[in-house]
Amino acid sequence: MAFDALTQRFTEAFKHITKTDRLTEKNMDDLLKDVRLALLEADVNVQVVRSFLEQIKSKALGTKVLTSMNPQEALIKIIYDQLVELLGAQGTEIAYPQGKTVVIMMVGLQGTGKTTSAAKLANLALKKQGRKPVLIAADLVRPAAIDQLEILGKSIGIQVYAEKGSTNALNVVRNGMAFARMQNADTVIIDTAGRLHIDEAMMGELSDIKHLVKPDEILLTVDAMTGQDILNVAKSFHEQLDVTGLVVTKFDGDARGGAVLSVRSVAQVPVKFVGTGEKIDDCDLFYPDRMANRLLGMGDLLTLVEKAEEKLDIEASARGMERMMSGQFTFDDMLEQFNQISKMGSLKNLMKMIPGANQLAGQINDEDTEASMKRSKAIILSMTKEERSNPSVLRASRKARIAKGSGTSVTDVNRLVSQFEKTKEQMRLFSRMANKSGMNFKR
Ligand code: GDP
């Protein structure tokens, strides 16, 4: 994930300062030096770093941090506030007024994830805002863009307007807008053509489309892996098109991410979304305060809770918990647990949202975890109803059958059975403890 190294550096620097019993001018300077180095290493723009630190220093002096009740905390709070400001303090959500058609135009260089992000945003508008979006495929330059958008649209149940063979993007957009009106759509998202570099033809086409549809939002996609170049690209697009926000894609990669921290103050455009993977759901709204928390190694519980509320079947989880606490844990319950965990997405990313668990997240390999979960699910699905609810019937011949059916080995089956027994035992212990202490898991 972008920013991982930066978070690590911040966490270490803060650990150091919170361990000292007194904050002095000297160790405050040391901390700020560490912060400076961490930001530069993360590829944050030099000027941005300079003014960031100056602001912190002047606020620290202004609020007389050194003589405050808890100087270390006060200093960290100042750094946090400054980070939030750097990332863009005001709300950056897209407004979806009821009864009004919202038009969003996606722009950006080729390969930055424009088409993918257009579909992700349409999906968010449908699922989270209850809108009726239509996508317009007006990228006529990249050969596969139209097919790609059609496939994505189909996968999320959103109509895509396209004219295969057309060479006139403006016409496609005009007809697409008419199509959207006919469909009673209240949200239109237009995928436009990028180029490998900024050029006049591209800007001319984008500017024509802009004047035709008068979009509510012009979102520029930038690839987090691009580094400092993002700043120039964002500046150019903004000068020519008045971009309203950025979608930073490929945040899941190991980009250092510094340009994302600088772009707001250099190009004056707020980050609105981040793309965190290739799948349609891999997209988060960008909240500066939450990002600052995550950056400082303090996790992001709010996003975690939202994700859980959105993805998990809370009723099913509660029922499962109740059953487990009453000692009735079966392989079906285990399967249900695996399914719920899978719905939450990357385990590594989830761990990072838990305050203090950042280092633990480093030990998780999502691919291994996913592969092992898939194996476990296949094994359970190869069991009969009886075997799932009463594992004591699992003799050698049955285990061999299950291994064959699930494409695994008897060792894998044995491993899962032993994991199951352990979990069941833990549940029993936990349940006894909970009963003794009067905890109640019934709803
Ligand atoms: P376009 O030319 O700007 O329309 O770019 P595409 O939407 O085709 O994206 C280019 C490539 O980047 C595709 O392979 C996408 O699957 C991938 N991609 C897009 N967004 C993300 C993201 O947030 N994370 C990752 N890992 N890949 C992404």
β-strand number: 8
Largest sheet: 8 strands, mixed
Structural category is: alpha/beta
Spatial strand sequence of the major β-sheet: 3-2-4-1-5-6-7-8
Helix and strand sequence: HHHHEHEHEHEHEHEHEEHHHHHHHHHH
Give the overall average pLDDT: 85
End-to-end distance, in Å? 38 Å
Poorly predicted runs are none
- How would you describe the shape? flat
Number of distinct helices: 20
User: Radius of gyration from the CA trace?
Assistant: 26 Å
**Heteromolecules bound:** guanosine-5'-diphosphate
Helix content: 55-70%
Quote the beta fraction. 5-15%
Description:
With 443 residues, the chain is α/β, with parallel strands linked by helices. The protein is built from 20 helices and 8 strands. The chain has an 8-stranded mixed β-sheet, with helices on both faces. Helix 1 packs antiparallel against helix 2 (25-41) and helix 7 packs parallel to helix 8. The protein is flat. The two termini are 38 Å apart. The relative contact order is 0.10. Residues 108, 110-116, 142, 145, 148, 194, 221, 249-250, 252-253, 275-278, 282 line the site of guanosine-5'-diphosphate (GDP).
How are the secondary structure elements laid out?
Elements (H helix, E strand, L loop, with lengths): L3 H16 L5 H17 L4 H17 L8 H17 L14 E7 L5 H16 L3 E6 L6 H12 L2 E3 L7 H14 L4 E6 L7 H14 L3 E7 L5 H13 L3 E5 L8 H10 L3 E5 L7 E3 L2 H8 L5 H11 L2 H12 L5 H13 L3 H6 L5 H4 L4 H16 L3 H5 L6 H11 L3 H27 L7
Parallel strand pairs: 1-4, 1-5, 2-3, 2-4, 5-6, 6-7
Antiparallel strand pairs: 7-8
The site of guanosine-5'-diphosphate (GDP) has 22 residues, from helix 5 and helix 6.
